[in-house]
Amino acid sequence: MSAKLPSEGRRADASPPLQPTAPAPTPTLLVRGNLQRDLFRLGVVPCAAVALALTGWFTHSRLQTLEAAFDAEGQAVARQVAAMSDLSLYAGDLPALQNVANAALRGGQVMRVEISNSAGVYVTAGPKASSLAQLRMFTSPVTLREASRASAFAPAGSTAAGETPIGLVQTFRDTTAYARERSRSLIASIGIALVALLAAWASVRHMARTVARPLRRVSRTVAALQAGHFEARCDVAEGDSRASTGNSGKGRAHELTVLAHDIDRLAERLQRNRQISEERVREATAVALQRMAEAEQAALSRARFLAAASHDLRQPLHAMGLFIDGLLPGASPAQRPAVLRLQESTEFMGVLLDDLLEISRLDAQVLTPAITKVPLAALFDQLDAQHAATAVETHVRLRWSDRGLAVRSDAALLQRIVGNLVANALRHAPAGGTVLVAARRARGKNGDSVRIEVRDNGIGIAPIHQGRIFEEFYQVANTERDRRRGFGLGLAICARIAALLGTRITVRSALQAGSTFALTLPAAHPAEATAPEPAPMALTPLAGLHCMVVDDDPAILDGSRALLEQWGCQVECVATGAEAIARLGTGDLHFDAVLCDLQLAGDGDGMDVIDAARRLQPDALAVLVSGATGPEVLQRLRHGGVMLLTKPVAPAKLRALLTTRRHAHAA
Predict the structure, then answer these.
(1) What is the DSSP letter of 330?
(2) Is this model's pTM higher than 0.90 or not?
(3) CA separation (Å) from 78 to 4, 103, 165, 333?
(4) What's the DSSP call for residue 374?
(5) Cα–Cα distance between 331 and 334 in angstroms, integer?
(6) Is pLDDT at 20 greater than 70 in this prediction?
(7) What's 9-47 look like in SS3?
(8) Which of 8-12, 54-58, 282-286 shows the lowest mean pLDDT across its residues?
(9) Where are the alpha helices (DSSP H) in 227-365?
(10) Distance between CA atoms of 485 and 57, rounded to whole angstroms?
(11) Domains and CATH numbers, the chain
């Protein structure tokens, strides 16, 4: 019986290699996370689970077989000894019992035999083990055999001889060999499982690499296409994938190859489309550059035209204003209305030219704002004094709310912006309406700010017009171009001044709901804000002031002479720059003011006269009077630090300048 055990163990150990190791093909195309790791996990885990399950089942069966065989052999020996010792034990034949026990030991199945009964018979054979942990005991009762009595002739009610045990046989087997065989079976099972897992790991790793390699190329190609490198290609050959995967990978390799070829065709199409797009972009860029150059040339031509037209218009307008102002005191009652109308028309033309000059100066960036701390209370007081009469005349309530705030800005430029917004609000507010100029704190990008708002409850501005109200000459409700309602340049100038101050004007309006114009400026501490400069001193007579007028226009010379002499000045008119410089350098003549045109006859330049006046008579007030408003001229005058009066010069402005000179001379 024991000879069969090794063969049974070999049959049980030979079964694990029959387990399946092929991975499922469907999950190999998953691309979540690391593709090769996912493919490896999806291939190895099922194989490992199946291998471990089969190995555990076969190992458990093998160990149960060993256990059953070991117990069966020990129990068989015990029954055999009990069957051979029944008569000897019944007769009390101790030598015979000893021979039976010794014969059982010679078979090698057990290492100790004990035969005993209740009458005190006790026979042993074999050494007594010191440790019972290595022994397993098997017992069998000793009964008399049925052949020892004639059971067929026994009377009714008698007891059979073999039914009652007459003794007990105990055999002991050593479990060392059994434990060794059990350990060998476990080690063999574990080895087979490891070999199966290693084979599965190698196979799945090879297939994962085979599948992941072309997919990596496809992924890199897609990434390159996304980055704009349309020349990238997958370069995946069908033969390479099929050779790596074998027959089981033919379908998968074919699908990967088709995918790679589709990506390559897509890349080729994208490359062609990009080439076409680049060609179209180059053509469009060339057209745009050409049109931009044409627009710039047109803008330069327009600027030159406007500069020349402005100068040519300012010359006669300046002379006209001088003559009209000189004629007004001596006009008869019948002539006075006509002279006043001429003066009004001249003033309107002067305002228009001044606005054009202002826009030209802002576009030429020749203005540098003087940033100071401006208290809004003082600013609003000045604006209220300026617009209160208009508000009363139009029956509009003009309200101010400064809240004690101050801002960091240029006081004059800020007054120009807010004043223009207030004038527009008064012009469009209905009779009985309200115009509110309010300041409040706001949170800006660079810290605390102050938001100045000008609100009215007028007719409002339609959304279609709100994007164009800051354009030059654009007026919503002045289609007839009534000059008394402005020229459409005020908001354009305010927008440019706001940009110069580092802010912008916003508008919020709706039809029949009024309008709100606002701008945001950096906040200043009210206690540190400086008060505005006091108003200039009252004009004083100019009698005795010696003036030189340099201009190549006889009309301007005549008009200037008449006006200045009417003010009591001593006037000397010069037509050329050379003559003016000569008179300044004689040393006999002292001039208090030199008024010189910029563009003189021939190649004469008024800047030369101004420089000579500064050098030869430094105490004289040197003023350049010109109608040129081009950006280049304004930049030149700014760099030279020359005081400029733009034609046409209002007589009041000229008188104020000369009065300031008289005060300085008197001091």
Answers:
(1) T
(2) no
(3) 20, 12, 14, 163
(4) E
(5) 8
(6) no
(7) HHHHHCCHHHCCCCCCCHHHHCCCCCHHHHHHHHHHHHH
(8) 8-12
(9) 238-245, 250-327, 336-363
(10) 105
(11) 4-18+37-147+162-184 (3.30.450), 198-283 (no CATH), 367-528 (3.30.565.10)
